[in-house]
Amino acid sequence: MKALWTAFLAMGCGSAEPTPLAEEPDAPYVLQLPAGFPKPYIPADNKLTVAKVELGRRLFYDVRLSVSGEQSCASCHQQSLAFTDGLPHPRGATGEDVPRSSMSLVNVAYYYPYTWENPQPHTLEQQALIPLFADAPVEMGLGSVEKQVLQDLKTEPVYQRLFPKAFPELEAPFSSDAIVKALASFERTIIAGDSPFDRYAYGGEEDAISDEAKLGFELFNLERFECYHCHAGLNFTTAFRVASSQFLSKDYQNNGLYDLDGEGSYPAESPGLVALSNDPADRGKFRVPTLRNIALTAPYMHDGSIATLRDVLEHYAAGGRGDGRTNPNKSQFVRGFDVTPEEKSALLALLEALTDESVLTDPRFSDPW
Amino acid sequence: MRGLVATGLLLAATACGESNEPSVSQEDHVSLTLRFEARVGELPFSCGQQLDALGTSGVEAEPMDLRLYVHDVRLLRDGGEPAPFSFEADGVWQSDTVALLDFEDASGRCSEGTEETNTLLRGRAPPGDYTGVVFRIGVPTAQNHLDLSTAAPPLNVPDLYWSWQGGYKYLKAELYTEGHHDGYLLHLGAQGCGGSPASGVFDCVAENLAEITLKGDISAPVTLGVVALFAGVDLAAQPDMQTDLVPGCMSGLGDPECAPLLAAFGLPSGEQKVFSLP
Which whole number is the average pLDDT over B129-138? Predict the structure, then answer.
């Protein structure tokens, strides 16, 4: 009799789940792409679903994902600053200085490669492993406490619901693999294409930006300034990938910030692509960042060593900074230029027009806790 | 040779059998492949190679890049109109209208290129006895001022694009030399373009769409001669930073190195010297 009773319970009453949610466990998440935006690349083994994105958002804002229990991804990627942190470089969960500045996650789905100087991660999933687990420098510092953290997450009712829902195919959904897949899924939804410039360029609204900004855009595309060579296309960077991209970008550039030894070297804590390639020609080479929302993501450069956009323009007008001007690896496109005050203002007006305010307050990207 | 070509096409016709072509007029078209090869003198071009005596001052160089877009391909026949050769879109190298030929393989100094190469144009044409081929280098004007980010392959390669205004680099040929570690560069494209993305209207002082006409056996490869391409310029020359801002030519109006480089392609007028067919 006992056996029959147990079987009856198993059949009828289900698990200790709270109220089941309305959607199917793996309802696809349909990206609302702005006008002119192509489909981003999404790896075949991590299809975008509603549950994964929700789980990813929860994890993104969860301080339990740091060894200190005090930092979340959002600590260095703050929505109000276009998912950066306003600092030259951040501090990790153990107090260690992180030498390269926090990168904006807006439109991160359209990037390739990832990070400032490490070409190894081929997907956002792989990239997420770095801040979570790396020990040089320590960012979230989970390397030694992975099991404890997973146990901790298991005690959270929200995760008890979301992990199995997001990963119904996994027998043991509480895993680091699931964490990075969920984080990547949430990150892929942070898409912004409603700046005044977008309305001008893709929406056909001639009045969306000022005449000054239009002049700025013309100057941006001139051989005299060469901005467009690296800050090219939809996301204003050659480091661009979409679903139909058949070749992957390998564009790393040196823009003449330092030359410590006359042989192109940058400060040791951020030497550039050379750190992985060992090729001296890669000293001081970094991935090109987007210019979208650039007015909000000061300070600038990989180490936050340039404070304002006006200073950035001066840097390029001078063909580099100090000894950096004669760095042997400096891009041939950073050769300096003459620029009038009116032209400077026009370029700055263009850069300001790249701010999409909606992404700063969009509740879909906000802290759900 | 001509007999061989016609037989080859007939064989292709029988082998192909049914066609999925929706257009009735294309039912009798057959598949045809046009081969290209790049040579440096007698030697086949390849990245990682040491090239001797290029340009007017005979400079040593290593390849850094060699890629070009091709469109508007037609096949010549005696006593008749040229026949259209339509590309088969493949999502990588060819759309319906434009093809990308890529002779570099990212080895040696070609590290900013792609490992993949493409030396073929694959398409369909009416069966016939062909005596030559005509093609244009570059991207048709109607497609030259679009947004790279949303363009279908092969117009989605960032290295081969400038901007909405400037359009695409029709041909990118670059050499690493002692005097030019960043490369002696030929980026052939439209010159002096202006316009507005909002209106979608652009125009250029010179479109520079070189038309190449070659008579000969189209079952043999079309040869791109690297020596002839750079024959008219001094590869050792350094930019004076006044009128000459870059080593080579990026199709800037007023760059003095552009004229001899464009002339090799018969631009703005005259005989082209770069391509040949046996």
Answer: 96
Helices (H) and strands (E) in chain A, counts: 14, 2
Residues of B with CB under 8 A from a CB of A: 91-92, 111-112, 114, 116, 147-150, 152-153, 156-159, 161-166, 181-183, 194, 196-199, 241, 245-246, 250, 252
Residue B77: count other Cβ atoms within 10 Å of its Cβ: 16
Indicate if the alpha-carbon torsion angle A234, A238, A239, A240 is positive or negative: positive
Residue labelled with tokens 């989970």: A142
Identify whether the C-beta of residue B27 lies closer than 8 Å to the C-beta of residue B17.
Answer: no
Helix orientation angle between A176-188 and A124-133, rounded to the nearest 10 degrees: 120
B134-189 pLDDT tens trace: 999 999 999 998 888 788 999 999 889 888 778 999 999 999 999 998 899 999 99
Q: Give residue-wise pLDDT tens across range A174-213.
A: 999 999 999 999 999 999 999 999 999 888 899 999 999 9
The model's pLDDT over A11-46, given as tens digits with 9 standing for 90+, comes to 444 444 444 455 566 799 999 999 889 999 999 999
Bridge partner list, A148 = none
Distances (CA, A) of B198 to A38, B31, B140: 18, 40, 20
The token pair at A350 is 């263009």
Contact list in A for residue B91 (CB cut-off 8 A) is: 244, 246
Q: Which residues, including other chains, have CB under 8 Å from residue A40's CB and lie 6 or more apart?
A: A31, A109, A110, A188, A191, A241, A242, A243
Report which secondary-structure segment, H or E, holds B8: helix B2-16
d(CA A177, CA A184): 11
- Strands B248-249 and B180-188, sheet pairing: parallel
**Number of neighbouring beta carbons within 10 Å of residue B179:** 12
Alpha carbon of A231 to those of A34, A55, A237, A310: distances in Å?
20, 33, 4, 17
Q: How many CB pairs under 8 A join A and B?
A: 81
Handedness of CA B147, B152, B155, B158 (dihedral sign): positive
